[in-house]
Amino acid sequence: MKKIFLAVLASSFFASSIFAKGISPQDIIKDMPFTQNTKGTVIFKTVKDFLTNSNAYPLDANRSEVISENPLVVRLTNFVYEGEHPDNHQIDVEHTIIYAISLIFTHTKANKMTLIINFMQFKDYKDGKYVVDKNIKPLKYTITRKHALDVLKKYDISSFDELAVSADTAREYETIGVSPSKTYFSLFRDDRRHDIANALVGKKDKPWYEGGTLQDKTLAKWEKGSTPNKLASAQTIINALFMAGHASFPEELTKADDFKPYATRMVRCIDTKAVSTDSNTPVLEVGVVCAAAIGILKP
């Protein structure tokens, strides 16, 4: 009985050791030089080597390019789809920003980089490569390693090494020091992705109530509008009604953010009515109906 117990114990230990250690990078990464730091994180000699190994933005399909290694200038290209909602387009850009900045600083010795994001129509494919759409203005950001790490520290990430799995955390199908960790994937959570991407590139959003352009459009345009544009447009309608003496509120509103719950409710109302209302109907007309529905329109 004792021998059986020891055999089972040894077998369990062996299996758990395999699952804990993952795959050695030496067994996976071929034909490109790399080192591992004291934490086991793989460091590639060049950014081009990193992009080749990652293959998230294939170089041979024109999805990425290292324009210069010193100073470091990297181009990544996102797809644009016909009829794509602007919210989805923005999410893609945020994903690209987080991927490029966090992983290039994790897996290379770069201390500063310029990231260029441009766009191509998914259907534009020629001679085995996608063609960049020159009608869409590219985005360009310059970021330092220190700044990127300072941003990550605000989310309790103290080192770039935490963004790759280690020998202690890698699962059997993950490559030690290369495969992205759970911490890395947490950067893309809906409740933080936008703020992290903006912080990494030093971008600040407009106040939520500014920049609305849909209030004088039709429902057809409203349905294609981004969420921030809808919210700002709803607030523009509410503000116009309030200033004209046609709207009132059950409580005293003393600052802009006090109006946000009402603007949010109006967006939901217009979205709902847009499903069953003629698409040529003016947004303002539906906005007035929704003001009554949410209880702020004076009789």
Overview of this protein structure:
With 299 residues, the chain is an alpha+beta fold. It contains 11 helices and 8 strands. The protein has helices at residues 2-21, 25-28, 47-54, 86-107, 145-153, 182-186, 193-201, 219-224, 227-243, 260-276, 283-293; strands at residues 34-36, 42-44, 64-69, 72-80, 112-121, 125-126, 129-130, 139-144. The strands form 3 sheets. It has a 4-stranded mixed β-sheet with strand order 3-4-5-8. A hairpin with a 5-residue loop joins strand 1 and strand 2. Helix 4 (86-107) packs across helix 7 (193-201), helix 9 (227-243) crosses helix 10 (260-276) and helix 10 (260-276) crosses helix 11 (283-293). The longest helix has 22 residues, at 86-107. The protein is elongated and about 75 Å long. The chain starts with a helix and ends in a 6-residue tail after the last helix.
Secondary structure elements and their pairing?
Blueprint: H1 2-21, H2 25-28, E1 34-36, E2 42-44, H3 47-54, E3 64-69, E4 72-80, H4 86-107, E5 112-121, E6 125-126, E7 129-130, E8 139-144, H5 145-153, H6 182-186, H7 193-201, H8 219-224, H9 227-243, H10 260-276, H11 283-293
Parallel strand pairs: 4-5
Antiparallel strand pairs: 1-2, 3-4, 5-8, 6-7
